Amino acid sequence: MTNNHTRLHDQLQFIVEIDKLKHVLRQTVLMNKSRRENDAEHSWHLAMMAIVLSEYAAQEVDLVRVLKMVLIHDLVEIDAGDTFCYDEQGAETQADRERQAADRIFGLLPSDQTGELRSLWEEFEAKRTSDACFAAALDRIQPVLHNYYTQGGTWKKAGVTVDKVRKRIAPIAQGAPILAQFVDELIQDAVEKGYLRTETPAESLHLT
């Protein structure tokens, strides 16, 4: 097999492997409430958000790099699974599981593409560049939209409180402050409409 054929074989192997992302279910419910969203749908949605909302980034961003980040950021969940963002126990092992997954999945590609995509994934995780901060902001905004337009969706099912949601969305302000203001107003409206609790049932019982 020639070097060119070997390269193509490795690239196609990667493309076939990432089809598995379509089968990784998230906790987020689709806006029509028909079923849970999968990771591939989530990544596509973020890519469209990046195209439409890039003017709201805190600093000028390279849209192509942002698109690459949002499209690859969850590939590690093929192996590591989706860790619910409010699952404290799962979060303890999440970083290790995802690093091991990154080694295997990005490692399927030719070395130059392995290096590029792995570097972009690590940049997204670190959230230190303007591109990564904007990409991360979109990743935090999208589930809020789903929960709001499903009248509380996952928030209600998991008993999530407004304080936990505000902590989760904190990175939005760094990557897209104007969008952060919008999301804050959306969350306040969600509380007023009863989509989101202000305290847990146990806390409410204690206060009464």
Task: Explain what you see.
The protein has 208 residues and is mostly helical. The chain is built from 12 helices and 2 strands. It has a two-stranded antiparallel ribbon. The longest helix is centred in the C-terminal third of the chain and has 20 residues, at 130-149. The model is unreliable at 203-208 (pLDDT under 50).
The helix/strand class is mainly alpha
Q: How would a crystallographer describe the biggest sheet?
A: 2 strands, antiparallel
State Rg.
Answer: 18 Å
Please report the distance between the alpha carbons of the first and last residues: 74 Å
Q: Would you identify the regions where 5 or more consecutive residues have pLDDT less than 50? A: 203-208
Order of secondary-structure elements: HEEHHHHHHHHHHH
Number of strands: 2
Beta percentage is under 5%
Please state the overall shape, judged from the principal axes of the Cα atoms.
Answer: globular
Please report the number of helical segments.
12
Instruction: Give helix % range.
Output: 55-70%
In which order are the strands of the major sheet placed?
Answer: 1-2
What's the mean pLDDT score?
93
